[in-house]
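#structure-requests
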Amino acid sequence: MREVRALAIGHSKTASLRRLGHWFEQAGLDCAVVFGGDGLPERLDGYAALIVLGGAPLPNEDDRFPWLPQTRALTAQALERGIPMLGICLGGQLLAYTGGGRVEHRILRPEHGMTDITLTPQANEDSLFAVLPHRFPMAENHVDHITELPEDAVLLARSERSPVQGFRLGECAWGLQFHPEVSAGNIAAWGEDDRRDVEADGFVWDDVVRHAHEANTENEKLAQRFADRFAAICMQQAAVH
């Protein structure tokens, strides 16, 4: 199997693809995470995909995270050149914002822990989301929401609290609000600061952990299916080009 390279952008020095990294590697997709603060490439030359991970800021808080302008520029390049992109949480918000959508802070209720995601009818025709069932559990941890999609975006998934959980922009750029890389074990290992934030938002920590473990088997199976499909799309695109 020919290995192809993906650029994965993280927004902290500890950012990780977690289980996605292992699944991508098995599929032949090499995507080591680059911390944006250490510098990003000017162009996506030599990369078969772009993956942008989650983080703390809104997508235009350039004063706090000065690599965001270049992250947006690379996102725009992926759209222009038809390079597969996967934006997770902040990454999905950056994709929406770059395309002309809107992201807002605490306009809607926060989401933490395993959350039920529901597909739209359009997802049945989508090359990535079609591998998922109509309703499925995925991890969430956000207080910012995409409140308006770009005009030409296709809405693919929503949840009770978030009108946008997944969308596609162009032929092969996908934005997610949920975290397919996060397992029940990852949630249970969240630190004290995260736990306090979760409880301050009205969640009971023990319930969050219990529900995550209850959903773990289904979640892991579907997250791997999703990851394998994205990797396959990247490999197909790389073979064409």
